[in-house]
Amino acid sequence: MARNAARQTNPTTIIAAENRIGAAGVPARSRVLPASAVRAASSHSGVEKAIKAGLSVWLTKSKGINNLPASFNVLGGNIWISFMITLALAGFAQLMLSRSVFGRWLYAVDSGSNDIAVFRITKDGLVWSDRIASAGAQPVSVTTSHDLVYVVNAASASIAGFRSEDGKLSPIVGSIRTFAGNGAAQIQFSASGRALIVTEKTTSTLDVFVLGKDDAAGPATSYASSGTTPFGFAFGRHGDLVVSEAAGAAPLSAASSYEISKDGTLTAISRSIPTTQAAACWVAVTKDGRYAFTANAASDSISTFSIDEDGALTLVFAQAAHLTGAHTTDMALTKNSEFLYANDGATHMISAFRVGADGTLTRLAGVTIPVGASGLVAQ
C-alpha cells in the first residue's frame, strides 16, 4: 500500500510477527519482524481477520470527507473544470503510487538464522523479495532510511549496513562496527538519517554512530543512560529522542529525553522521569511530537508523557490504558497518530486505542494473534 495514497485515504495497516525463537525484545519502531510465512487479508469494516502463519495485513476502507466548506463545491459548477482537475490529480496520484509500490519495502530480522529478509509491500499484502546474512550473530533490530538499511546484532555486539536496490540488499563496505557493551535492544536512524542510535540494556548505554559520505557508519560514541536498562526509543517531531528505561526509577521504570546534535552528540533533557509503572520497554511518539507512550510490560499498562517544545517530558497519565495480564511487548502508532496498537503478549491480542487530543487512550475492539507474536508495525 502506498505511503502517499495512505495519507489521502486514511487506511490503517497492522503487521505483526511471530518470534520463532521466542527471544524477548523485538522493537516496534525499528520495524523488527522475524521472517515467516505471509498471508494478507483486507476488511471493509475494520480489522476482520486474525493473524495466521506469522504475518497478516489488514486494511480499513477509506471514509468520506464530510462538512467541506462551500468554496470546495465551486469547482463542481463546470464539468470540464472538474474533469481536467480530476485527470491531473489522478495522473499525479498514479505516479506517486507507482513509486511507492515499487519502492516500499518491509525489512525483517531472523535471530534464529542470522539473516535479514525483505518483503515488497503491495496493495494485496507482502511479497518475499530477498534474504541476506546480517553480518553478525543474533540480529534483533533493523532500521531503514531511504535506500540504507542497518541491523544490530546482539550476540556479536555489532552493527552492519546494507544498500537496498529494488528489494535486493548489498553490504556497504566498511559499515560493520562493534561496540563495547552488550544486551542491544534497538537500532534506529536519527531524524536526519545521518546517525544511528543503539540502546544497550545490560550496560545501560546509548551508542551513537555517525554516517560518513560513503554511508558507512563511523566508530561508536557511547553515552551513559540517564537511567538503568534503556530499552526502546523513538524520535519526536523536532528530532528529540525519547528512551524508555525498564528500571530507570528503581524498582519501577522511567523515561528520559535527549537532544542529538548534527555531529551525533547526545545531551540529556529530561532524566529518568518515573512512569510509576514497572518495566517500561517500548516507546511510541505521536506525529506532532506532543505525546510519548511507554508500554509497561510488568504493570500491564501504557503511560502517556507530554513533550514540550524543548523536548522535556512530563508524565500526564501513569495508566492511560490498563488490562490485567496484558504484558504488552510492543506498540505502534498509525501514520497520522490517530490510533495506537499494542501487542499484548500474555493475552495474545492486539489492543487498539483511539488517541485523544489530550493524550488519552480510548480502547477499541482488538484481535487475537498467535502465541509467540512479538513484533508490530502500523501504517
Would you write up a description of this structure?
This protein is mainly beta and 379 residues long. It has a domain at 136-224: Thrombin, subunit H. It is built from 2 helices and 26 strands. The longest helix has 25 residues, at 79-103. The chain is globular, with a radius of gyration of 21 Å.
* Strand content bin: over 45%
Helix/strand order = HEHEEEEEEEEEEEEEEEEEEEEEEEEE
Largest sheet: 5 strands, antiparallel
The class by helix and strand makeup works out as: mainly beta
Distance between the termini: 9 Å
**In CATH's first tier, which class of the domain at 136-224 applies?**
Mainly Beta
Low-pLDDT segments, ≥5 res: 1-13, 18-76, 79-103
Number of continuous helical runs: 2
Query: What is the mean pLDDT?
Result: 78
**Helix fraction bin:** under 10%
Reported by name, the CATH topology of the domain at 136-224 is: Thrombin, subunit H
Shape: globular
Radius of gyration: 21 Å
| Level-2 CATH architecture of the domain at 136-224 | Beta Barrel
Total strands: the figure is 26
